[in-house]
Amino acid sequence: MSAPCDLCGADDLRAYVTDMYAHAGAHYDLHRCGRCSLVQVRPAPSEEAIASLYDDDYFDEDYDSCLSADSYFDSFDRLLERYGRLLDRIEARAPVGSLFEIGCAGGYFLKLARDRGWKVRGIEITEIGARHARETLGLDVERRAFPDPSLPEERFDVVYMGHVLEHVRSPAAAIEATTRLVRPGGLLVVEVPTYVDSVYFRTLRLGLPVLRGLGLDASGLLRALKFPAEGETLSPYHLYEFRVRTLRRLLERFGYEWLEAESRVPKPDGLAEARGALNRALSLAFDALDQGALRLGLPGGNVSVIARLRADSEG
User: Fold this and answer.
1) 38: CB partners within 8 A, 6+ apart
2) Alpha-carbon distance 196 to 129, whole Å?
């Protein structure tokens, strides 16, 4: 029998996308919970299978879900605007203080926060990322998986998890563990993908033959949109896909007060300097969807949330 839903515990997982991912000879489907709608990979990959995904090539090829043409380590300038905007939102709700990042990659967000006066620490699952953060950027970063019961009993004003929850075996266990890191009244900032469980993904699936007929496989756009070319496979990096309401339910379950959410529609780098009428039209469409998500509250491909740990929460 398949494992129950990680969010609500229901035994009502229904097939959503079959044969979505493959890795090391195993194939994986997506299921959606009939009770809470959380989308999750089934069968759940083993700990060993998950660990094998995050080798030194991860930051060169897969860290940004095929959206970026550059490696992570060549992307600081591109990430700077996004991280700066997120820190602006955090600093509008909390004075500069202590900040802990779970899954800090090579440390670029922590570096920016340190430059703006924050006292920062972090953990990262990959050796290459943790080493870059420590040796190149001079940050206090340990190589650790999360959740990890051996983390020090220290509380922080802000804890940030950027694109972490979708990678862990149990988002519920991960959020529960953050309550031991966030001081009562402190902030938890979470960013997750919402694309695969969105109207955009479902609509594109229906029109996939037309899109392939237009030659978009050759441009790499379809792969970035989670539609690999015939004969290719995607690896199961994202074990969960969220909606805003499933994320909110998860945070509130563990004593967090929902403060704000911002949805965005990230544009693949290949469209940033689009040539040809079709690519220019697609680039404008991504820009319009992004502004609709940001300004009108329409569904996006990613959502970043700021929540406050209630002062009476147990941690």
Assistant:
1) 5, 6, 7, 8, 32, 240, 241, 242, 243, 246
2) 26
Task: Please give the CATH superfamily to which domain 13-309 belongs.
Answer: Vaccinia Virus protein VP39 (3.40.50.150)
Rounded Cα distance between 234 and 82, Å, is 26
Place of tokens 């703006």: 116
Query: What pLDDT sits at residue 224?
Result: 80
pLDDT at 219: 62
61-65, 137-141, 172-176: segment of lowest average pLDDT = 61-65
Amino acid at 38: L
3-state secondary structure of 65: coil
225 confidence band (pLDDT: 50, 70, 90): confident
Neighbour tally for 33: CB within 10 Å = 22
DSSP 3-state of 196: coil
Q: Say if CB 38 and CB 6 are below 8 A apart.
A: yes
Helix axes 244-253, 171-178, angle to 10 degrees: 50
Whether the per-residue pLDDT at 62 is higher than 60: the answer is no
**pLDDT tens per residue, range 194-219:** 999 888 899 888 888 888 887 776 66
Token pair for 223: 């792969």
Nearest CA to 108 out of 82, 126, 127 is that of 82
Distance CA 162, CA 187 (A): 14
Half-sphere exposure of 92 (CA within 13 A, CB side): 11
| Opening angle at CA 44, ends 38 and 49, nearest 5 | 135
